[in-house]
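CORE FACILITY INTAKE
Project code: CF-77B
Contact: R.S. (postdoc)
Sample description: multi-component assembly, two entities in total
Requested service: structural model of the whole complex
Turnaround: standard
Below are the sequence entries exactly as provided by the requester. Do not edit them.
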Amino acid sequence: MNLQIRYTTTFNYPKTVRDSHNVLKACPTSNAAQTLESYDLAIDPPARVFSYVDYWGTRVDSFGIFEPHEQLTIVATSHVVTHPAPSIDLSIDVARYAEPDYRVEYRAYLDPTRHTEWTPPLAELARDTVHGVEDANGAATRLMEAVRDRLSYAPGSTYVGMELAQVLENGQGVCQDYAHAHIALARSVGIPARYVSGYLYAADQSLGSTPDEAEIDVETHAWVEIHIPGWGWQPFDPTNGTPVAESHVKIGHGRDYDDVAPLRGVYHGPEDHELGVSVRISREELAGRQSQQ
Amino acid sequence: MLKTTFAEAYDNGEPRLHYRALMERLHSLAPGDLQGRARLVESTFRTLGITFAVSGREEGLERTWPMDLVPRIIPGSEWEIIEAGLKQRVRALNLFLDDLYVGAQAALHDGVIPRWVVESADGYLREAHGLRAPQGAHCVVAGIDLIRDGGGVYRVLEDNLRVPSGVSYVLENRVAMTRALPIAFRNHAVRPVSHYGASLLTALRSIAPTASGDPTVVVLTPGIANSAYFEHAFLARQMGVELVEGRDLVVQDQVLFMRTTRGLARVDVVYSRVGDEFLDPVVFRHDSLLGIPGIVSAYRAGNVTIANAIGNGAADDKAVYAYVPDMIRYFLAEEPILPNVTTYLPWQNEDREQIFDRLEELVVKPVAEAGGYGIVIGSQADRATLEDLRAKLTAQPRGYIAQETIQLSTHPTLIDASLEERHIDLRPFVLTGEDIEVIPGGLTRVALPEGSLIVNSSQGGGSKDTWVLEDDGAVATR
């Protein structure tokens, strides 16, 4: 799939702010499932951007705006070609998760983090869910279903930093919550799991889009990668329960949201601001490219 | 196991060669005179305003750091070995940190130290990956704590590679001592320490980004509320550079500036006494008001150097400490000159058996605490404490290390009007820039309560001036 993604964030401040410093993680990665063809960043007011690749392999764009300003607009445009996913080996035994050397190697993805802290009841739920399941992919799928059974999608129902146990008790969340819940359940039974930040090319009716539009409004998305021993990191989308395929565009991964948050920043000025985030994705039918295949 | 205690000044009741002149001089003074001189020292410190805050206590009282009147003496030939051992250790620690954050992580790949031990260290920061340290100097200032075991062997107890403090006392103790015991001081060929500020400045200038010809250095302090604020101000004065807080600095297009009365002035090197987590709210703690937004990007872009480098906590973690002798062998292909204290790691099966069998003989330390907090000395702990400890060691093996109990050497110390033996340690300061330099001596800390083995200032410790002699002490008394 040939996708053109336009990530736009606009900050409108009620009063002049200055000395704003930001760290953006919005650039899609390149891997076996996707190829980044181009990436372009435009910032207004203009800023000198310093870019690097962080520990997790994610491209980071760092920039500051020293001069007083009342509005900040960040537009990150990328062109990505996604590829069909290979089919997963379904015969990998969950017993491999218990091997001591394996647990040591994947420890960073087994320990709880700020957003993936689990309680004894959650661990019990996870244990019951995978009880009797013999293959690794099956265990991960069951855990995803357990999350989906307990959460319904409700924008604005949670905030960053809300405790996971609380989110599950309320039974409502957004993609970050689905991802953190899936990760916590997996880790609690010794299955390495990591958080993925990215874009999803799918019509979001709540944003007024319909599936047949050429360009659709979406939001940044989050999903999960579960490690399958001897196979690699296998993606799961607990929010949608659908396979992660050509509509998913990965930016990067980390232990939880904090490692790959799309935008972090601080500035001098009034605390409240109006924030507009939009992601528009269009699917291109490039005749020349198509005919080469 | 050696249970004996090494006496620094005496051997079978006779003063050791390098202490003879000092002991003769002290015994020639009347007891009242000694106390009078001790009071002079105390008032000197109070006048200078040298205090430290007792952390972890409700009162938050500032106290003067008591300096004992009796200096500790290290003969020149002994110091040569210590100095070589410290340089070797700090060289290896710098190579390890550079390999970890900038290089290919060869030491982890080759299994010199288990990857998970490093990655689970509190001070290991993934945000520090790719941050280059000019000259490979991740630890520009290192404080390496040494103790002396029953056989008189110097051993490394702990590495302090983040913001080691105490060097101001080394310098101030010397000034106070030359006033309190001027004749004794003059009768010894004591190696000077007063050049510390100049040496630190040289090291800091040597790590400036290459573009700057005449680099500007600043000392960054968390502010006046910090227990070591006195030292921060002292060091800035010693180096003749600005003492700044986070709000005095600003980043513009990945370049660091200091606000001055004549506008913004570029800064090339920051000697930071602010903890890593507070340095940059964009990267670390969002709620930190002490830091400078964007400074880590400026550092990454190569426009400013921060010392000590970010993420050094990966190397001075108490569990990582156990592997430093192996780092020395791996990176330098040398045998360690200064041994560690024998250390047992609770997550290793054979070590755990030892620990549980001999808990009442060992010392157990939490890896994440500093300042002597949370240490359990098995021989002094009651049954309930030991049981509690067993449970903690089982539940959180990575959270603790166990070590052989070392009695620490003792040194004559003025208690009221008489000289009594008290336990001491030594924190030498090692500077890395273009070269590695060790300031002769360091901070000798003394546990003032009788029999106490905990020398930390926060736990009732005092300090001593430390005299490294040019020779081995065969000096005639005048």
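Facility notes:
- The radius of gyration of chain A is 20 Å.
- Chain A touches chain B at residues 19, 21-23, 47-48, 50, 52-56, 62, 64, 66, 104-105, 107-108, 111, 259, 264-266 (CB under 8 Å).
Invoice: internal transfer
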